[in-house]
Design a protein that fits this description.
- The mean pLDDT is about 95.
- This protein has two domains: about 300 residues, Zn peptidases (Aminopeptidase), CATH 3.40.630; about 110 residues, 2-Layer Sandwich (Alpha-Beta Plaits).
- The chain is about 30% helix and about 20% strand.
- It has ten helices and 17 strands.
- The strands form four sheets. An eight-stranded mixed sheet has the order 1-2-8-3-9-16-10-15, covered by helices on one side. A four-stranded antiparallel sheet has the order 12-13-11-14.
- The protein is α+β, with helices and mostly antiparallel strands.
- The radius of gyration is 23 Å and the shape is globular.
- Bound molecules: zinc ion.
- Keywords: Aminopeptidase, Cytoplasm, Hydrolase, Metal-binding, Metalloprotease, Protease, Zinc.
- This is Peptidase T.
């Protein structure tokens, strides 16, 4: 129904615009360059025939596809983000198109010997015979989440061009800064005006998610005492050693590299320090609310214990909640998950319902009053040079959006 060439052209036009976000910036969007794609998207939405196309002072884009039926249908929405992860450069992306993938190694970059291999990334074998879009090995691709934007724009365009498909009012929303955890925080849920929505921000074909981590960040600061090493006996407190003690007191196996499924973790991602002061930056993740709270307590308690050993506050800790499991907000309206599942089944896509080991814009939006499960966008190996997306998956996700729109209207006759 939707031509591959058309999809590729649209996707390439998005990923070749650098929209890397920056966690160290306080502005929204966090980087001025995100406006480049945001402004282009606004124009494109108008060109394909969307109505009420708006962009606010923080670059949040919204648009409407009006209903084409007489009866009342709940307003639904589709959301994706246009920034890319600061984990890896998103400048000068040179997408490589590999038609009819043969299931073998893909040389991303011969000069630098960068290979995308199914020996390591077995998912590749799911897509034998399909058209893959990869990087040239020097940047990320940005399928996260420009595949999602491609799908939403293409679905709206398709519905506009095929008015025989009956649907209610549809709202679309594109956000900046999802990758730095701020995609939803300035999203005007009331203005969006949808009863529920879906983020198009998952990975493999069929993914459908309504559970995600509860998340917090912790900064542990160890305050040492610097004294001339020649005269330090009984006086110096080396914050680095205390930091090591702190690190080793947390369960070594409850870390990202040792956990999967519903297992939570402590993740130490940054250490900076010298004798005088060492800072440990952690993220804490758990699907289960109680376990999540317990993890925060463990970190707190450990600080208290060390402090009591030294008889003063050598360890201070600051823990901030980041987002919560959307399950709590989606379960009361499970029909919105069932609907997406039914859409996939009707399109011969096997639904893969699983818990996200992360968060999405949707988890925050769900807590802001817009229940918002997550649907596959098709890409793999996000946030790095091995990122790739099969064009066929983008087309399938586009079809899922159209089918959800159609089912929502037919079920509310
Ligand atoms: Zn994403």
């Amino acid at each position: 129904m939707i031509s591959k060439e058309h999809i590729i052209k649209r996707f390439v036009s998005y990923v070749t615009v650098d929209t890397e976000s920056d966690p160290n910036s306080d502005t929204t969007p966090s980087t001025a360059k995100q406006w480049d794609l945001a402004n282009a998207l606004v124009e494109e939405l108008k060109v394909i025939g969307m109505e009420d196309v708006t962009i606010d002072e923080n670059a949040y884009i919204m648009a409407t596809l009006p209903s084409n039926v007489d009866h009342d249908v709940p307003v639904i929405g589709f959301v994706s983000h246009f920034d890319t992860s600061p984990d890896f450069t998103g400048a000068n992306v040179k997408p490589q198109i590999h038609e009819n993938y043969d299931g073998k190694d893909i040389v991303l970059n011969a000069e630098k010997d960068i290979i995308l291999s199914p020996d390591y990334f077995e998912d590749l074998l799911l897509y034998k015979g399909q058209t893959l879009i990869t990087t040239d090995g020097t940047t990320l691709l940005g399928a996260d989440d420009k595949a999602g934007i491609t799908e939403i724009v293409s679905a709206m365009e398709y519905l506009i061009q095929n008015p025989e498909i009956k649907h209610g009012k549809i709202r679309v929303g594109f956000t900046p800064d999802e990758e730095i955890g701020r995609g939803a925080h300035k999203f005007d849920v009331e203005k969006f005006g949808a009863e529920w929505a879906y983020t198009m921000d998952g990975s493999q074909v069929g993914e459908l998610e309504y559970e995600n981590f509860n998340a917090a960040g912790a900064v542990v600061t160890i305050h040492g005492k610097i004294v001339h090493p020649g005269y330090a006996k009984g006086k110096m407190i080396n914050s680095i050693y205390i930091a090591t003690e702190y690190i080793n007191s947390l369960p070594r196996l409850e870390t990202p590299e040792h956990t999967e499924g519903y297992e939570g973790f402590f993740h130490l991602h940054t250490v900076t320090g010298d004798v005088d002061e060492t800072k440990l930056e952690y993220i804490i993740r758990d699907h289960d609310k109680e376990h999540f709270e317990a993890r925060k307590e463990v970190m707190q308690k450990l600080a208290t214990e060390i402090n009591s050993q030294y008889g003063r506050e050598v360890v201070s800790i600051e823990i901030k909640d980041q987002y919560f499991n959307m399950k709590e907000k989606v379960e009361p309206v499970m029909h919105i998950v069932d609907l997406a599942e039914e859409a996939m089944i009707q399109l011969d896509i096997k639904p893969l319902i699983k818990a996200i080991r992360g968060g999405t814009d949707g988890s925050q939006l769900s807590y802001m009053g817009l229940p918002c499960p997550n649907i596959f966008a098709g890409g793999h190996n996000f946030h790095g040079r091995y990122e790739y997306v099969p064009v066929e998956s983008i087309i399938k996700a586009t079809e899922v959006i159209c089918k959800i729109a159609e089912l929502t209207a037919s079920k509310h006759k």
